[in-house]
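Re: your question from the hallway

Yes, I did run it. Sequences:
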Amino acid sequence: MSVTQQAVYEPLTEITAIKLSKKLQLFSEQEALTCREIGDGNLNLVFHVTSDQSNRGLIIKQALPYAKVVGESWPLTLKRATIESNALLEFAKYVPQYVPEVYYTDETLAITVMEDLSHLQISRAGLIEGESYPLLSQHIGEFLGNVLFYTSDFSADAKAKKESVKSFINPDLCKITEDLVFTDPFFDHDTNDFEPELKQDVEKLWEDVAVKLEVAKLKQKFKTSGEALVHGDLHTGSIFADSHTTKIIDPEFAFYGPLGFDLGQFVANLLLNALSQKEESRNVLYAHIAKTWEVFSQTFSTLWRNEGRDHYTKTEGYLDYVLQRIWKDAIGFAGCEVIRRTIGLAHVADLDGIEPYEKRIATKRQALRLGRALLLSQTTLSSPAELEDLVKQTA
Amino acid sequence: MSVTQQAVYEPLTEITAIKLSKKLQLFSEQEALTCREIGDGNLNLVFHVTSDQSNRGLIIKQALPYAKVVGESWPLTLKRATIESNALLEFAKYVPQYVPEVYYTDETLAITVMEDLSHLQISRAGLIEGESYPLLSQHIGEFLGNVLFYTSDFSADAKAKKESVKSFINPDLCKITEDLVFTDPFFDHDTNDFEPELKQDVEKLWEDVAVKLEVAKLKQKFKTSGEALVHGDLHTGSIFADSHTTKIIDPEFAFYGPLGFDLGQFVANLLLNALSQKEESRNVLYAHIAKTWEVFSQTFSTLWRNEGRDHYTKTEGYLDYVLQRIWKDAIGFAGCEVIRRTIGLAHVADLDGIEPYEKRIATKRQALRLGRALLLSQTTLSSPAELEDLVKQTA
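Structure:
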């Protein structure tokens, strides 16, 4: 698109967002447009621009040069907007059906103009309300199978992959994960946030050497293992869905990381939702976990067999080894995610919304037991069925 | 140094090399200089510039835009000269005593002007002649302990490390290792080079699924595991030495790779030399291997305890785990190196110089057995003493 890019960053307003939409010729000249800022204002501005005439709309997402969390504000690179749009474009090469279409990007303004998904619902909100999203796990499994295979060394050209690794080096956003997922919740750090009733449980965790040793290994893996392009923040709040569509958004944390990372975070968030549900409503979540793994491993295996470029993709036993390692790592990453979403800085509404309070505390205790069990069961837990058993044992 | 950099690459001659030395004021105006090109002409030009008056000299190394191997010529990035000089400068931050001093670099000309080490000997040549280099393993252990610790996530600032990872992304040179160390020798590829008498042994190797599975895992580790800045080609031909000095040269393959990689290649080359020696002369090589590991692990451990920045460096058991993994990986990488130096494209004089021919073939057969045994013993071989036993078992 040949639009002159602006030379200086400045935050858009609802008026300049409409102007930009017109300038990009994304609506016809005559259409009257309405614009609403719908972001939560912590990290990004999100403008929803709609035509008053037609039903058409679009989203303009603009990164803010700071993050506002717990009242404080710290500087945060605008480059994350470029990472996000490049990740969406890269994902779209393999699975365009599972990401919003990108219409335009501007590095200086740190904006991505993209498909309006407001007819869909954020899956975390839906799951909390009891939506089942029958195709969610099928789609996430296909997304992960395709993206992880095609961006890995099993498929990608060695030199092209290294250039891509370079372009997705993402120090600022990775640092957030390194601190908030892998470090702070396991030490007595200021960023942690938990109810006083959990203090004893949390202190026990901080003294649990076996658990910390596993987290240390996973943190090192996260920091050093550039296996494939990962979304980096694939929780249920990063997924729009309805009963037949799934769209993955917000890959500003994308980088080349461990093959099991996204899978672990997604599974953890399904588990957190399961814990928040009544016993009899949990089966749909367990089924989603099993289906995600089944579809992912089938998709990945089929691509490996048909399109594996590395010579060793033909070596007997190698695919099984890789899949086992992905599963094992995913279980470990899920353990970290379950714990950090319970006592770390960024909570999930699944747990925080549980009423009454006593039940919320009891469920968070179970979440801590589950996180610990996941971290200590990485090598023994061999299937989604065993994972389901493990959850039940922590009740 | 404020010297105007040249805008276009062109190969130096002995005359322009002298001119450059004068221009850089590395000799006094009046000194008469002599220059000899001493490179092997395959990858680089190497000019040795000396003063006729004093004993002083320097080395000008210039990358050629192609590689000449087995009569063929293929293009090879000039950027490797920048990688090499940046690696030397990075190493010098921690262990200046073990690398040549860099006086000047020019990215366009792809040159590094550095300390003259011609009073030392390439350690491969010396070891073949029976030199013992009593401090070689002490020095290499210290070099590896310092460089690997300080450039790893256990010490380095997370963001600074990622910027460094980016600047050392080295697709062309890594590709050479991926092909010549981890792939070609394990398949029937054109680049392989071995005596007809070894054909049966080699074909057996190509069909050895257990071995190939281990090499596949190590190749994936090499391609994806950016743990620390590694030299990338630390064989005995990349080390100048005498009885009290050790200098590591030629880090043009440097990149952020697995902690055990350099150690594995160095150990492998000591093992190859051991195989080429009479039984009674091998102890000095075994002692070097044991000492390298001892000094490396002590150095790394002391730095970890005193200067570990990552919170988990205080977690009980983590250091032991990391050291065990480095050792295990090093054994695996050593297995690949022993095999590729026996049947791959780039041989070592240690084996190729063995006379008579029958003995050479017998030793190469042992090298293949040893390489295989190393690859299959990664998890069971727990010390240098056990490694020595393993070598003896392959006799």
